[in-house]
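Complex record, two chains
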Amino acid sequence: MNVTVAPDMKGTTGVLSRGRKLVVIGNGMAGCRAVEEILSRDGTRFDVTIFGAEPRVNYNRIMLSPVLAGEKTFEEIVINGQDWYDDNHIQLVSGDPVVGIDRQQKHVITRSGRIENYDTLLIATGSDPFIIPVPGKDLDGVVTFRDLDDVDKMLTAAEKGGSAVVIGGGLLGLEAAHGLSLRGMDVTVVHLMPTLMERQLDEAAGYLLKAELEKRGQTILTSANTKEIVGKDGKVSAVLLEDGTVIPAEIVVMAAGIRPATGLAKEAGLDVERGILVDDHMVTSDPDILAVGECVQHRGLCYGLVAPLWDMCRSLADYATDTPSGYGGSVTSTKLKVSGIDLFSAGDFTSGEDCEDIVMRDASRGIYKRVVVKDSKIVGAVLYGDTADGNWYFDLLKKEEDISDIREALIFGQAFASGGALLDPNAAVAALSDDAEICGCNGVSKGQVVSCINNGAHSLDAVRSTCKASASCGSCTGLVESLLAVTLGEDAVETGPKTMCKCTSFTHDDVRALILEKNLKAIPQVMQELHWSTPDGCSSCRPALNYYLLCAWPGEYIDDQKSRFVNERLHANIQKDGTYSVVPRMWGGITSPKELRAIADAAEKYQARLVKVTGGQRIDLFGIKKEDLPGIWADLNAAGMVSGHAYGKSLRTVKTCVGSEWCRFGTQDSTGLGVQIERMTWGSWMPHKFKIAVSGCPRNCAEATIKDFGVVCVDSGYELHVGGNGGIHVRATDLLCKVETEQEAMEHCAAFIQLYREDARYLERTAPWIERKGLDWLKEALFSDPNTVKELARRFRYSQRFSQDDPWAQRAGGDRADLHSHLAEVRPLQIISEVA
Amino acid sequence: MPVGKWLDVGTVDQIEPGTARTLPVEGREELAVFRTMRGEVFTIVNKCPHKQGPLSQGIVHGNVVACPLHNWNISLETGRALGDDDGCVPTIPTKVEGGRIFLLREAVLNPQVADAADEAPKAAA
C-alpha cells in the first residue's frame, strides 16, 4: 500500500513490481470489467494477474447467441484482445484454472500446480449451467450453453442436421433454440413452466412469444417435465418426457438455468449462501478477497444478467482505489436476442394489491404492453411487439419518477405522453377530423360513427351493431365511448348489456361469437386477441372462458383445471366446513342392493357424517375429507358407480317415475327412457346445472314441468317441456313440442341441450335464458330448418365423445393426486427439517 | 426478509402454477401454500376471514385468491380482503431457495395478521 510508483508507467517494461498484487480468478466479463474499471481510476496501483479457465482472451459472453445464429463471428465478440493484456501489463493465464485458495498463505494454486501470491484476490468465477438431474444427463451429445466450446459443439451437431431438443424455455434456452433452428435443425423446446420466460414475462406475453416461435417452425412444449435423456451406444438419441412423449434428438441443450459458481470460495471457507456473500463494496467475509459478478450474492440477490455486473464493477473499483461509493443493488431489464422478435421486460410486474396494471393490447399488430404502477411510480413493464418505449419506461422506473401527470397517456408511449398531446381523451377525440379513422378493423371514420350516433345509436352496443365500430377487436372501444360522450353529453349515453366482467369491454355474447370467428383456442389467446385489461383475468371470466372454449372446440380444447370452481376441480361439492359431499350416479334413480351395500360401506369407511337422499333420486354422503375423495371414489367405482356430477355446471340427474312397467296409470316406459337419456347426457358441461325428468303420465310424479328439460309421457307419445325451474323463482316449463317416439324424444333432448350450450351465457339457467330470448325464438331456432334438430343433436353427441370419461375413475387411478394430498404436514415437536 | 428459523416444506414444482396446496400444522391452523401463475409463492392461513372457507381451493388470479364459498377476494401478499369486503387472514413469510419452499417457523406456529400500521387506507365505499 505504501509503495508509490511513478504515475505514468504505461508502455514501460521490465518493472517487476508496480504495486500490490491483484489476482483475478475468472477471465470473463465481470473479472475483466472490474480490472478495466480499476485501471481507469488508477493504472499503477496493482500488478494484475488474471486466471481464465477457457484457453482464450476475454469475450462478450452474452453475444454467443448471435455467434450460434451465424449473425456474428467470434472475432467480433472479443472485448479485450491480447494487446489489451500486454498494454496494461496484465498477466493472463488461460487454460490453467485455479483449483484452490490458501487464505493463510495468501496465494492461489492452479491445476498444473502453479502458485501465485496475492495481496488482493478478486473472485469472478461467474456461474455454472444447472444440469437437471435426470438419467442420461452425461451422455455424449448433451451440451450446455455457456461458452464458446458449447457453441462449437452445437455447430458441429447442426452441420449434420436432424433434431435438437433444448431443455429450458428461458432467455438462454430460446436463444439456443433460435440459433439451432436458423442452422437448419428441427428444434423442440421443453419448458417445465406453463409460460415461456416466466421470470421475465407474464402469461399474455409468453403466449405471443410461443405463437411466434411456433410460426417459425419450432415446437414449444410448456408444462413439460423431462424424465430421461435416452441414449444409444453412449450417444443421445431422444428425450423422454414425464407424460411418455418421446422426442428424437441428436443433440440436447441443457439451458435450465444457472447456479453461481461458488466451489472455490466455499472450500476456502468464505461465507457462501446461494452465492458468495459480499457487502456493498463487493468485499467477501475475508477483507482481502473481493468477489463480483454472477457468483456473488448481494443483499440476498444473485444476478444473471449483464447490467448489474457493470454497476458492481464500478463500486468495486471505487473501493479498491480508496474512493468507496457502495453498490445498492440493480433493477434489471431484459431483451430477448432473437432477431425479429421484440420483447422487453423490466422490474417487478407481479401485480400486488396496491399495484395498478395498465394494459394495452393491439391484436392486429401483435402488440401487448403492460406497465405496473405503484404509488404513482412505474415498478415494472412488459412489452411485446413494440419495445420502442422500453428504455423510456425503464428510465422512469429507475429514477422512480412520479408519473401521475402523464398517467392517462402513459401506455401510449413517450411520444404521446410527453409530446404535449391532449390528455383529456374526450377532448382529444373531439379534436379529430371527421375523416379520421376510428375503427381500423372495419374501416369506420369518426364522421360515420358520429352520424350513426346522431341517428339513434345511443349506446356502445348500438354503435357496434349499426356501423360496426369497435365490434371486432375492441381496441377502439375507448374512442367510441368518447365519441358517444362528446356527441350526446356524458349523461345521455345509454349503457348497454353488461360486459362479461371488469376485465373486458365485451359482453358474453360478443366473446362467444369472437371465439368462433377468430378461431381462438386458449384462454391466454382470447385475452390477448380481445384486449383483456388484466393479465390473467379474474374468478368471473376464467371459468366462463374455460366453458366457452370447451363448448366451441370439443376434443381439441384442453380443460384448464385452474380456471374451474373448486367443485368441478375436485368433482365433489364443497360444504361450509370445507369438507365435501359425494354423490354417485344412479341412472334414472334406479339402484340395486349391491350399489346400496357399497354406498353403506363407503359411508362407514370414510365416516360420512350424514347420509341423505337428494331431490334428484340419489344418495348424498356428507363430510368427506378432500384427501379421502380418491379413496371413496375407488370404492364406489369398484361397485360399478360413476360420478353423479352433483357438483357441476353440467347434467345433474334424470328423475323418473316408475312408468308403465309398474304403475297402473303409466302410459310409457318412463324409467327406461330416463335411463337412456341419462346415459346419453351424463358428463356434459353446460352453462349452468341442468336437470331432466321423465314422467310416465300427466300426473307428473317426476315433476318434469319444473326441470330444464322435462318429458311427460301421454298415450300418443311424448310431450317435451323446457325451461322449468324450482329455484328461487319457480317457473313452470314451456311446452316445446310433442313427438311420437322415444327416438325423437332423445333427439330433441340432445338438440335442445346443444342449443342451450352454444347460446346461453355462462351461469344462465335455461329458465332466464328462455325468458330473455323468448319461446318463439327458441322454436324458430330449432324448427325453422328441418335439419337443425338433427345437426344440433349430432354436435352434442360428438362433444359427448370427449366428456363421458368418469372423472372419479381418473382421479382414483392417481390422476392429479396433487389436488387431493397435502403439500406436507408440520408437527411442531418433530419438524420436517430445519435450516438456520 | 424476517429473521428466524425456516421450515423446508417441499419443492416449488409440487404446486401447479395458479393453484395452492394445503399444509396442516398439528395443533394449529392449517396453512395454504399458493403458487401464482407467475410462479411466486405465498403462504396464508387456509381460512377465509368471512366464513372460514378453505382458500386453498379458490381460483387464483394475479396475486389474489377468490374464496370458494362466497367469492371474497383475498390478497395473497397481505392476507387482506379486497374491494368492499373487510377482513384479514394471517400471512406466513415464505421464501424459495434452490427450488425449495421455506416458511418462517415462528409464523407457522403462531400466525399473525399483517401489521395494521402497514394498512393502506381503503377508499371510501
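Note: Confidence is low (pLDDT under 50) at residues 1-17, 830-836 of chain A.
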